[in-house]
């Protein structure tokens, strides 16, 4: 440290003047509101049930350039679990919550604006918002921050709180993957695995609304007929199990469905053998998009698909999409999706309510990626 800087610091330490920077910092962070927030937090990465804990703290006081929001509902998604384990590419922000620096779990949710600083005109009390970025921490009752932390949700009358709480990850992922890789025409086929996942169900419904046909691969299970019926009711054109995907008989059957119109878009949620078999169904110059790795098995691809069919392999990550696109573009997508929900073309996902209480939260988050689930787990505050 230079001599001059050292002597300036020393002088400041002795007389402790309130600099403008300190004054601003104090304005933002020192005062507390009379709202007590509670949150599921962690200070170290690890197994969710071991590192997550309940934390209560006073929400910072409102300033002219911050808003206060109250959360209405927040889901538990597979990526939330990976984030707590420290295995997700985006790391959470460890922020000052009361006396401690902690990360709040959860990435998705819907909140209502309950107070707005007088310097803000982009949001008003009563607006419903989603998070502007991944990693915000949505398993909490309240939050305070600049308006740029939040994205206004288009208004819609008959869209449920659960639909809004789960809109930014799965429906947005399905929407982008159906729109951005292949210029699909009415009647075209899309093939996907994880067809019963929340993303898969959104793909089925958005595809149907846009006049596209879907071949949906799912894992076999004792009540497979019921699953096939549920997905068909949602709008799936065909449902097949992954164990049959490679058999000659199934291959013949699937090819008879699409004839010369082979799918040009494949959506991969699972990886491993399921993904390899699915890729073989793509037509020449098809696009294979990987967005999940639920089997935790690597993707292995026969060279012939690249050499003779010129299939392209891509990854998609909705967080990255939100990072590199404007709030206006995201708002336009949310408007389209909300309109589909409002028209009952994209229905509320199956969900189970998680009790907003420490032990239930820990157990539910541990179950977050265990497979054969009965629907999205959602906390309703
Ligand atoms: N890249 C992105 O932008 C993006 C966005 C959203 C989601 N995702 C990812 O997409 C995946 C699905 O997310 P989601 O919220 O839709 O999840 P979800 O609703 O919980 O569904 C999970 C899906 O994975 C399947 N699955 C679970 N364990 C499996 C295993 N061991 N082998 C094969 N399949 C298995 C489940 O099938 P069963 O019913 O047979 O268990 C189900 O179809 C996750 O990996 C998530 O992180 C990525």
TrEMBL record:
User: Which EC numbers does the record give?
Assistant: 1.3.1.104
What is a single Pfam family found in this protein's UniProt entry? ADH_zinc_N
Source organism's superkingdom?
Eukaryota
A cellular-component GO term for this protein: mitochondrion
Q: What is this protein called?
A: enoyl-[acyl-carrier-protein] reductase
At the top of the EC hierarchy, this enzyme's class is oxidoreductase
**Swiss-Prot/TrEMBL catalytic activity:** a 2,3-saturated acyl-[ACP] + NADP(+) = a (2E)-enoyl-[ACP] + NADPH + H(+)
Q: Which SMART domains match?
A: PKS_ER
- Family to which the UniProt record says this protein belongs: Belongs to the zinc-containing alcohol dehydrogenase family. Quinone oxidoreductase subfamily.
SUPFAM superfamilies cross-referenced by the UniProt entry = GroES-like, NAD(P)-binding Rossmann-fold domains
Write the record's keywords in alphabetical order, separated by commas: Fatty acid biosynthesis, Fatty acid metabolism, Lipid biosynthesis, Lipid metabolism, Mitochondrion, NADP, Oxidoreductase, Transit peptide
- GO process terms (BP): aerobic respiration; fatty acid biosynthetic process
The record's section on CDD domains has: ETR (cd08290)
Localization in the cell: Mitochondrion
Q: Which GO terms describe its molecular function?
A: enoyl-[acyl-carrier-protein] reductase (NADPH) activity
Enoyl reductase (ER) domain span: 47-379
- Provide the species name: Mucor ambiguus
